[in-house]
Amino acid sequence: MIVRISGEGQYRLSEDALARVNELDNAVVDAAQAGDQAAFAATFAELLALVRAHGERLADDDLSTSEVILPPPDTTLEQAAETFTGDGLIPD
Predict the structure, then answer these.
(1) Mean pLDDT of the chain
(2) What is the pTM of this model?
Protein backbone atom coordinates (compact mmCIF):
# COMPACT_ATOMS: atom_id res chain seq x y z
CA MET A 1 0.00 0.00 0.00
CA ILE A 2 1.27 3.47 -0.83
CA VAL A 3 0.55 6.14 1.77
CA ARG A 4 1.09 9.84 1.19
CA ILE A 5 1.69 12.21 4.07
CA SER A 6 0.46 15.52 2.68
CA GLY A 7 3.25 18.00 2.20
CA GLU A 8 5.91 15.38 2.87
CA GLY A 9 5.90 12.51 0.40
CA GLN A 10 4.89 8.93 -0.31
CA TYR A 11 5.79 5.73 1.49
CA ARG A 12 5.32 2.13 0.39
CA LEU A 13 4.17 0.13 3.41
CA SER A 14 4.62 -3.60 3.80
CA GLU A 15 1.66 -5.79 4.62
CA ASP A 16 3.21 -6.38 8.05
CA ALA A 17 2.75 -2.73 9.05
CA LEU A 18 -0.81 -2.34 7.79
CA ALA A 19 -2.59 -3.86 10.79
CA ARG A 20 -0.90 -1.48 13.25
CA VAL A 21 -1.37 1.49 10.91
CA ASN A 22 -5.08 0.65 10.70
CA GLU A 23 -5.34 0.40 14.50
CA LEU A 24 -3.75 3.82 14.89
CA ASP A 25 -5.96 5.27 12.17
CA ASN A 26 -9.04 4.04 14.05
CA ALA A 27 -7.68 5.46 17.32
CA VAL A 28 -7.12 8.83 15.63
CA VAL A 29 -10.75 8.78 14.43
CA ASP A 30 -11.97 8.05 17.95
CA ALA A 31 -9.85 10.80 19.51
CA ALA A 32 -10.81 13.37 16.86
CA GLN A 33 -14.51 12.59 17.13
CA ALA A 34 -14.33 12.74 20.95
CA GLY A 35 -12.51 16.09 20.84
CA ASP A 36 -9.64 14.64 22.88
CA GLN A 37 -6.70 16.87 21.95
CA ALA A 38 -4.06 14.94 23.93
CA ALA A 39 -5.08 11.54 22.55
CA PHE A 40 -5.37 12.91 19.02
CA ALA A 41 -1.94 14.57 19.09
CA ALA A 42 -0.19 11.51 20.52
CA THR A 43 -1.92 8.96 18.28
CA PHE A 44 -1.61 11.00 15.08
CA ALA A 45 2.10 11.55 15.78
CA GLU A 46 2.51 7.80 16.35
CA LEU A 47 0.67 7.04 13.09
CA LEU A 48 2.93 9.36 11.09
CA ALA A 49 6.05 8.00 12.82
CA LEU A 50 5.01 4.43 12.02
CA VAL A 51 4.50 5.24 8.35
CA ARG A 52 7.90 6.94 8.20
CA ALA A 53 9.70 4.17 10.11
CA HIS A 54 8.12 1.17 8.39
CA GLY A 55 7.52 2.66 4.96
CA GLU A 56 9.95 2.84 2.12
CA ARG A 57 10.17 6.50 1.11
CA LEU A 58 9.46 6.87 -2.61
CA ALA A 59 11.36 9.33 -4.77
CA ASP A 60 9.71 12.73 -5.21
CA ASP A 61 9.37 12.09 -8.95
CA ASP A 62 7.68 8.70 -8.43
CA LEU A 63 4.19 8.87 -9.96
CA SER A 64 2.70 5.90 -8.11
CA THR A 65 -0.87 6.44 -7.00
CA SER A 66 -1.37 6.90 -3.27
CA GLU A 67 -4.01 4.58 -1.89
CA VAL A 68 -4.25 6.61 1.32
CA ILE A 69 -3.52 10.29 1.87
CA LEU A 70 -2.84 11.34 5.44
CA PRO A 71 -3.20 14.99 6.43
CA PRO A 72 -0.04 16.99 7.11
CA PRO A 73 1.70 16.69 10.47
CA ASP A 74 0.42 20.10 11.60
CA THR A 75 -3.25 19.09 11.27
CA THR A 76 -5.36 20.49 14.10
CA LEU A 77 -7.94 18.59 16.10
CA GLU A 78 -10.68 20.61 14.41
CA GLN A 79 -9.39 19.73 10.94
CA ALA A 80 -9.00 16.09 11.93
CA ALA A 81 -12.58 15.91 13.17
CA GLU A 82 -13.67 16.78 9.62
CA THR A 83 -11.14 14.48 7.91
CA PHE A 84 -11.05 11.39 10.13
CA THR A 85 -14.58 10.00 10.17
CA GLY A 86 -16.27 6.62 10.11
CA ASP A 87 -13.73 3.90 9.40
CA GLY A 88 -10.90 6.42 9.09
CA LEU A 89 -8.63 7.05 6.15
CA ILE A 90 -7.24 3.56 5.85
CA PRO A 91 -9.72 0.91 4.69
CA ASP A 92 -10.20 -2.06 7.00
Answers:
(1) 88
(2) 0.86
